[in-house]
Amino acid sequence: MNENIFKRNELLAGKVIKGLESRNMTGYYAANKDEARKLALSIIGKGSSVTMGGAMSAHEIGLVEELKKGEYDFIDRDAMEDKRAAMLMAYDADVFLSSANAITEDGVIVNIDGNSNRVSAIAQGPRKVLFIVGMNKVCDDVDGALKRARNVAAPINAQRFNISTPCTKTGSCMNCKSPDTICCQFLITRFSRHKDRIHVILVNDNLGF
Ligand code: SF4
User: Fewer CB in a 10 Å sphere around the end CB: N or C, the chain?
Assistant: First the structure.
């Protein structure tokens, strides 16, 4: 990565981390994917039960692969036939892994969900929530974060799942009420009631979408 981008990301991450701290959440900066994976494993702790919502970024830093190696109680919802049981197990897990659709410079986290299992587990249930967030997700403010979530993350996710929504054809949000919409719930996480519950690793890389 270009040295100037690296420096800019480091400075910007410091600002986001301060914002998170002011909201009773904990932020970290990882200079690369390897550092992010090691940091995530130390936050999770061996033996912990871990589950996840949509978390492409956790895959991209090699974290999911590592969690499946046996030293962690990884609840693999993709391998479970009973999806409802998998969703319910998430609420009692030690750690819930997630990416974010966007995060503001002052530490507000924005997520959109269709099934809503991800946003509900972020809001309450798991003892810890660990976000893996590439610096490409940082936006000026909540308006910018919502715009990013709706016009970048959601259309790409809709295309990824090959569903029939207007954004799969236009590439941007058409504010649909399609039965297939993946934009059923919007979660804006502006404060954590519980100290040491929400942790955010900002990674000096472009992760997810
Ligand atoms: S509201 Fe509809 S059109 Fe907009 S991003 Fe969501 S699924 Fe796509």
Answer: N
